[in-house]
Write a structure and sequence with these properties.
The complex is a heterodimer of chains A (about 170) and B (about 120).
Chain A (H helix, E strand, L loop, with lengths): L2 H22 L13 H12 L1 H19 L5 H23 L6 H25 L2 H42 L1
Helix pairs in contact in A: 1-2, 1-3, 2-3, 2-4, 2-5, 2-6, 3-4, 4-5, 5-6
Chain B lengths: L7 H24 L5 E6 L2 E7 L4 E6 L4 E7 L2 E6 L6 H4 L6 E5 L4 E6 L13
Antiparallel strand pairs in B: 1-2, 1-7, 3-4, 4-5, 6-7
Classes of the chains: A mainly alpha (about 170), B alpha+beta (about 120).
């Protein structure tokens, strides 16, 4: 890996951590419901640099973010880790399997969906153990995941467009 | 150049996600009565706690005779009772509330799904 890539990953991860921290300040009406703003960064990283840098950004974000928020190795950390990894891996797989078919909107939706599925599975296996409690929050999480996934996807789309425009401007001028 | 527009696949996926969200509400609502239980008390003592979603017929002896309670399709009724006025049988099928048979001292109560059994919150 070249040092320029390392800087890029560090920069993207710091953006993701900032969004992660910001979002922790937002109160949530339903357990496990989060805006998933840092997923915008993951989507952008995937689009520009591919799956491995995206995984790295996600890992750095989750580990450093949880250290900053004081949730490291707590229940929230494992939920965050499972969700983050499942989201990133699923987005990467979909992008590899169907190159070009999905835009940032679709990729972000995939990420949100698998993030929720992984998180609920881990919550069920490790912490709750009652399928009823999972079933009660499942529809809310799926609905919220669709809304936040779509919003984040649209945000990522604008960002990808702006970054590409900036790149082209640089190359042309 | 990379694909950066909202593609057909995006729209299809968004539709699927929206459909899944709505469908999960309906599905969970239907699956939820698993949490509901039928409590059968005789003379103030709890005799049975049965799930409402499993069809079953229970026969038990009360103070003056045998009462038959039937659980079917998420509803419960008193099928047969030894009393004279048969009020409990006339109550028919219920899915919430309770049926009381005073002469035989049998109380059948349906308790709703308990939604507060999980943790209050786990944030992630």
């Amino acid at each position: 890996m070249q040092s320029a890539d390392k800087y890029r990953i560090a920069l993207l991860a710091s953006y993701a951590i900032a969004l992660h921290g910001l979002e922790a300040l937002v109160p949530s009406p339903i357990p496990w419901l989060r805006l998933g703003l840092s997923n915008i960064i993951t989507v952008i990283t995937l689009f520009f640099y591919g799956i491995r840098p995206a995984l790295m950004v996600t890992m750095v974000r989750i580990v450093l973010g949880s250290l900053l928020l004081g949730t490291f190795l707590g229940p929230a950390f494992f939920l965050s880790l499972s969700g983050g990894l499942a989201g990133t891996v699923s987005m990467g797989i979909v992008m590899t399997l169907f190159p070009g078919s999905f835009g940032p909107l679709g990729i972000s939706l995939i990420g949100a969906l698998f993030h929720n599925i992984a998180q609920l599975s881990v919550a069920y296996l490790l912490f709750v153990g009652k399928i009823e409690a999972i079933l009660v929050v499942l529809p809310f999480l799926l609905a919220a995941g669709t809304v936040t996934g779509a919003c984040n996807g649209i945000a990522a789309r604008y960002l990808v467009r702006e970054i590409e425009a900036a790149h082209q401007k640089k190359e042309n001028g | 150049m990379r694909h950066n527009n909202i593609t057909l696949a995006d729209k299809v996926l968004l539709s699927i996600c929206i459909f899944l969200s709505f469908y999960s509400f309906v599905y969970v609502k239907e699956a939820m009565p698993k949490g509901s239980e039928v409590r059968i008390e005789v003379d103030g003592k709890l005799k049975y706690t049965l799930p409402l979603n499993a069809d079953r017929t229970v026969e038990l002896s009360g103070v003056i005779g045998r009462t038959t309670i039937e659980i079917k399709r998420g509803k419960v009724r008193i099928k047969d009772a030894p009393c004279t006025n048969k009020i409990c049988i006339h109550e028919g099928w219920i899915e919430r509330g309770s049926i009381v048979c005073l002469p035989n001292k049998v109380v059948v109560t349906v308790s709703g799904p308990d939604k507060n059994k999980g943790p209050d919150a786990i944030s992630g």
